[in-house]
Design brief:
Layout (H helix, E strand, L loop, with lengths): L8 E6 L4 H5 L1 H9 L3 E8 L12 H18 L3 E7 L24 H14 L4 E5 L8 H17 L3 E6 L2 H11 L23 E4 L4 H10 L11 H6 L3 H8 L1 E5 L20
Parallel strand pairs: 1-2, 1-4, 2-3, 4-5
Antiparallel strand pairs: 5-7, 6-7
Helix pairs in contact: 3-7, 4-5
The protein binds zinc ion.
Zinc ion (ZN) binds next to loops.
């Protein structure tokens, strides 16, 4: 690994508490271990997530507590909640009808971007992560993270924007492999989710940080208990060797790089030409 010349700040922007666990936890732990400043920003407290608690304020408060526990496991220096309402997910996907008045999806994207940009400027962030345009598996709040994040980086002049995603190809292979053990897994739901391997510019090896990533997932207890259909609950039951295989890499797309670009570190400078 190349020596780090300067300490930089990386801001990880997520929609709900626990999204950081699944998508970027290993990268966050790695950058923190390298001495960089890692800041976690969520748009909502996830108060309409699936959980044993009823959706609402108490669930939101519990999930923010879990978020701080996760952030501590990953070595984050700061956690910010933008405080929008969790837009929720309609049964079968899409935008829920009965969403709260301040739902993130209804927020003025320009205003939300200015609020995030203020944090980027204050932190002199060298890097911002958002989501792919599909919003991963298509949650409306995740699509909004893509929109708001991209615009915030423009306003603040943040030099590197990475869209956190999942390489759909090994994900589908892995899900098909474990489907026999988890008949409730709907593999087809993932066929158009995230990004195909050919679009991915960054493959970050986080195998050394899978213990911390697992601790981050375990911190989100409200999302990991009860019904087996919850993604996080299923993920935590993945046997350890397979877990390292499935979660040992994190993937990002940086727009505007030549096709076939393959980088290994978030701050790596792409080859010129
Ligand atoms: Zn989410």
């Amino acid at each position: 690994m190349k020596a780090i010349k300067t300490v930089k700040t990386a801001v990880f922007f997520h929609a709900h508490p626990d999204d950081e666990s699944l998508l970027t936890a290993g990268t966050m732990a790695m950058l923190a271990a390298e001495g960089h400043r890692v800041v976690l920003v969520v748009a909502t407290s996830g108060e309409r997530g699936q959980a044993d608690l009823e959706p609402g304020e108490a669930l939101g408060a519990a999930r923010i507590t879990e978020l701080y526990r996760s952030a501590a496991a990953l070595g984050c220096a700061r956690v910010v909640n933008l405080g929008y309402g969790d837009s929720g997910l309609a049964p079968g996907g899409g935008v829920a009808e009965d969403r709260p008045e301040n739902a993130f999806i209804d927020a003025d994207a320009e205003e939300a971007a200015r609020r995030l940009a203020a944090i980027l400027t204050e932190e002199a962030a060298g890097l911002l992560t958002t989501y792919d345009p599909a919003g991963g598996y298509g949650h409306p709040d995740h699509v909004q993270v893509h929109r708001v994040g991209g615009r915030a980086a423009e306003i603040a002049g943040t030099p590197i924007v990475l869209e956190a995603t999942v390489n759909r190809d090994p994900l589908l292979r892995g899900l098909r492999l474990i489907r026999g053990f988890y008949p409730q897994l709907d593999v087809r739901a993932f066929e158009r989710a995230y990004s195909p391997g050919e679009e991915i510019t960054h493959r970050v090896n986080v195998r050394r940080f899978t213990r911390r990533k697992r601790a981050s997932m375990a911190a989100h207890a409200s999302q990991a208990t009860g019904a087996d259909t919850r993604t996080l609950g299923v993920m935590l039951k993945v046997p350890r060797p397979l877990y390292r295989l499935v979660f040992g890499t994190e993937w990002y797309v940086r727009r505007g790089l030549p096709p076939g670009t393959r980088l290994r570190h978030p701050f790596e400078v792409p080859p010129q030409g």
